[in-house]
Amino acid sequence: MGRQFWVVAHRWAGLTLALFLAVAGFTGIFLSWIDELEVAAAPDIQLAAPPSPGAVPLSTLELRRRVLARYPGARIDYVPMAVEEGHSLRLYLTWPDPKTGLNRADAPQWDDLFVDPYTGAELGRRQWGNITQGLKNLMPFTYRLHYSLALGKWGLLAFGLAALVWVLDCFVGFYLTLPVVTKAPARQGWFARWAPAWAVRWGASSYKLNFDLHRAGGLWIWPLLLVFAVSSVSFNLPQVYGPVMQALGGVDDGAVYQSALLPAPRWRPRLSFDDALSRGEALARAEAARGHLALRSDGERYLWYIPATGAYVYGFTSSADISHHGGGSFVGFDGDSGALRATRIPTGRHGANTFTTWVEALHTAHVGGTAWRIAVSMIGAMVTMLCITGIVIWMKKRSGRINRKARQDHGGAVIKPQ
């Protein structure tokens, strides 16, 4: 296949991806700062000041109990183990039908509840991602746009397929920047002929400037574009990404409990959340010791029950975690017997798993501190710019093809506008 084939392939891949990547890039500018922007958009529900100096918040499991007592029939299956000082506790509620597992028809039009961690008082509610409810849902809606165009599971799948095309097109685009191979000996060396692809002619015509920004801009951040493309496949298309990583030596730690679906959901496991927390902490200590890892107190911890599999997941932070958020290590165990089902150690055990941990953390700006968060915002802007310049190049070339065809149809005469 000649170079022209790949030019056409890159053109149509770019046109197909333009909407997805422009939206993902633009929203990604802001998602690096999602925590701060959530507070800015709705401080009344996001913040909760201590009532007095040195006040100690209630345990999150106690707050869960109080909320469930207030809303009979509701479920809270995910509980963070700590709350950032000065912030509220966010709890996600569902009202499932025991037979179908789907939310009941009479379920209220909200699922996020914010409570004061010191008193248990309600601070506000929202239906996550429903922008019609106002600014309190601005960042959740932005997040929904980022990964699915706010179109649910079909948007998630479409974004996953787009990410897969993006991975392949990264290599096609890189190839097209390379110098054309000629039969006759070139007067300049190969690198000298490739150098113009990295440059931007700032004083050139608007079309040349646009072309240079597209070509050179893609080259400047090419490794990062590939990282974001691959991590997007990981997030949105695990049914493709997982088997590929396993073929490369990775282990799908989560599949042990996520794929072990019960004939019917187990809504009431024998282990309560309090018992499950104790069991999870014990398993975490044992697994960390077995892997010669240290448990860290500076990262996230959570407890999550999955009725469809009857399993608890206890997330904790170990020395194998690279994210400043932590919580990447976890143990999964049976909700009745407490038997260990799965262990995830994010780095150090399998090269493919370590690779995945790093590309996902880079994508979500959970490593590198403020400097990398700024870089991720800039990358989002660059991705948006590449989409816009790519469309401009296509429109310009399409206009040229139309004009050439029109001249041919009129015997080569120059057609002047009326």
Automatic annotation (TrEMBL):
Q: Which UniProt keywords apply?
A: Membrane, Transmembrane, Transmembrane helix
* Keyword ATP-binding attached: no
Q: Which InterPro entries match?
A: PepSY-ass_TM
Question: One matching Pfam family, short form?
Answer: PepSY_TM
Name the source's superkingdom: Bacteria
Q: Which residues cross the membrane?
A: 12-34, 154-178, 216-235, 374-395
> Can you name this protein?
Putative iron-regulated membrane protein
Q: Which organism is it from?
A: Novosphingobium sediminicola
